[in-house]
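Thread: quick sanity check before group meeting

JM: Hey all, I'm pulling together slides for Thursday and realized we never actually wrote out the predicted structure for the chain we discussed last week. Dropping the sequence here so it's in one place. If anyone has concerns about the input, flag it before I start.
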Amino acid sequence: MNLTAPLSTDSLQTWLDYWSHVHVTGIDLGLERVIPVAEKLGVTHPQAKVITVAGTNGKGSTTTTLASILNAQGYQVGLYQSPHIYRFNERVKLAGQEVSDELLIEAFVQVDQARRECDLSLSFFEATTLAAFVIFKQQKCDVWVLEVGLGGRLDVVNVVNPNVAVITNIGLDHTDWLGDTIEKIAFEKAGIIRPDIPVIFGGQQILPTSIQDKVIACNATLSCLNQDYFYQANDDGKTWTFSSSALTLKLPCGQLALDNISTAVAALLVSGLKVSQTALEQGIIQAHLQGRFEIREISGKTVIFDAGHNPHGVEFLLKQLRNYLEYNKQYTEVIAVFSMLADKDIDSVVNLLKNTVLMWKIAPMDVPRAAPLKQLESALQGETVQQYSNVQVAFKSALEETKNNQLILVCGSFHTLEAVWEYLENVNE
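JM (edit): ok, ran it. Output follows.
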């Protein structure tokens, strides 16, 4: 299909709708169509340091921390992440700020022209990722911090060679696309590794063989959490210690998980970029990411937003939640506003959370892949459940009914969080 392209004067939403219809499928792993377009755009070999981050969970927190520290150091940083929570512009940031609609549209015009000259179609994700790269090139960014969308080896982000490759961890997710074992998924993530570069592995598990094999084949230098670098929370609850064979640093805890903060610090230390202790501290304190154990006070109630949507991510959420409850003993019960996508491992997620959640307020999401109420209810058999017509109504009831000893946990999917944020935007909280 050769759709008529929008004009440079059309809205960002018009362009996003256009990219949703250019290619036959939303996800189409493979670089054969993307590489010629990327080369025509001149984005495959940037005059910048590139740090690429893959992994099952923690990519967003890790890339956010990397960019925040580098911004604090004074570098011109281009940060690319996905998905967004509320606005598409969240995916592309310069100096910590979302880019404007105008910059995105200008880049989309160039991407569309290049793909037409190559006589190729691009998926939504491919086109929008290339647009981010065009912006980073035009703005002469010193560092590109790139979050892989899906897998690694065949993801469009991988058209750019990184100077540092980070793999946060490996868990079972997107098995239809990436394979149904840890080793198969690790093989896809390891696709971001290049010859003779530093590689950071931030997983708590044993290093998968497929990552080790790729490191050896590329003569890369590997640093692993709990083997080559370590972190430990200090007793004051406000600081933590990073250590490696080369140095020991006492740093502030920040708002994000220490697993990911420590992995970001490890990556910077091998990147060749100059970063001061002050920039590390400032960057960690300032790093903030919507929907990753995000704590907010809303209408006098404590609400925790977490986008964990697979067993590995929810284990991570539980670790942070237990730590939070340990330091905030006034909360003795958790009320969950919960919904998930139908193709996710709902049973495993529920089994992990059920000993912590007192009551589940469930509702279907308004997206094509949403789990119907019947599927959610089946996974929650034996639990205390209240059903609602939509996530926003479920959240409103939680705000109205939650007692002083209870906190609200909104979780299960980015889309669950998005529905609540839309509700909050509408009521001007």
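AS: nice. The chain has two domains: 12-286, 294-427. Residues 255 and 288 are 6 Å apart (CA to CA).
JM: adding both to the slides.
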